[in-house]
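Supplementary Methods, section 5.1.

A reviewer requested that the exact input to the structure prediction be made available. We therefore reproduce it here, unchanged from the version used in the analyses.
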Amino acid sequence: MGKVTRCLPGKWGYVLMVIGISAVFGLWWFLFPGYGSQQEDRGGRGKNGGESKEQGQESLFSADIPDLGLEDIQEFLNRQYGEGKVSFSAMMEELVKGNFREAKETVFRTFWESFLEEMGGSIGLLGQAAVLGILGAVFAQAAAVFPSSRIAEIGFFITYLLTFTCLTASFFTSVETAGRVVENVLDFMKVLLPSFFLAVAFAGGSISSAALYSTVVGGVSGAQFLCGKVLLPLIKVYVLLVLAGNISREVFVRRLTDGLEKGVRWSLKTMVGIFLGLQMVQTMILPFADSVKRAGVQKVVSAIPGIGAGAEAILQVTMGTGVLIKNTIGGAAVLLLVLLAAGPVAKLCFFLILYQGAAALMEPVCDKRITACAEGMAKAHLLLLHLVIAVICLFALSLGIICASTNAVYFGG
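The structure derived from this sequence is encoded token-by-token as follows.
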């Protein structure tokens, strides 16, 4: 006891002790806001005895971190898939437990339902276009016995206009599908970003959270404008030019359609490259600034006489918990991004293969202009597929980069 008194002489020792204890409690209150009320709620639930241990584990994230705004994400999922069919908190629980089987079954089940729903209204239009193509080929062969008359040409124009109508209606359904999935992905990112970056700040990355949040929000706005207002209308124009340009035997818009196709592809590559490049530059610097700040705070806390070691351990555990929550939210968000796009992407792939196969099968028997139309529709579906996949990869890779880079705050301490 004498040694302790000599280490903390007089009233200054007690002052330092009070300051240290106040600093620890202040840090605890800052890192765990609402912790006391949560404990009271848990005590009340324990007195009522209304929940089992397993149910308590399933509601771990909703009970322990209510201020992250996960309820907004759940409301979005309820609007998309129905009440309670897909649970964001339950998916996070399964990822934390390492039970990827449940998450995989949820993804595949929802994908299959989405795929069947997407395919429901488009098979009829495709069947009509296929029947018209076959009838056009039969009519053209039958009219070939009248080489000097205009019967064959008139019959071709009638068949072509009917095929034009069916193909246009079918493709606009695909455009609506692509536009809807892009809009859903962007809406999901809007409800996800506040919760995700709050978790990044909770894990000690306050500087990274503030800077990267503005970058990702800007990326969402830019993708929404570029894809919804520029690229989707350009793809519609591309299809109309392909169908109108093949009505005559001489193709007069080939270079224009090729230019539109290249322009859409280059725009998507430029959007992804600029956004991810800017984010890579930020993540090379900002997480290490947070790491230096956190290391300084940790050294100051560890230097508090008497309680420094315990306070440092509490700080370390707190940061580890924040990193786990952040990475779990990011992993669940990537799975949901894939889930949102899986059905529409499968539909676009199906139509792409179908149109390409139809062009190959019709080439020996049909007029080359109808074959060119089928091939142009396949290219247009490929552009839609590139657009949807580019948006998904843009934000999935962004979340992965942020989660991986901000881990430096924890490991750097």
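Residues 308-362 form the longest helix (55 residues). These observations are discussed further in the main text.
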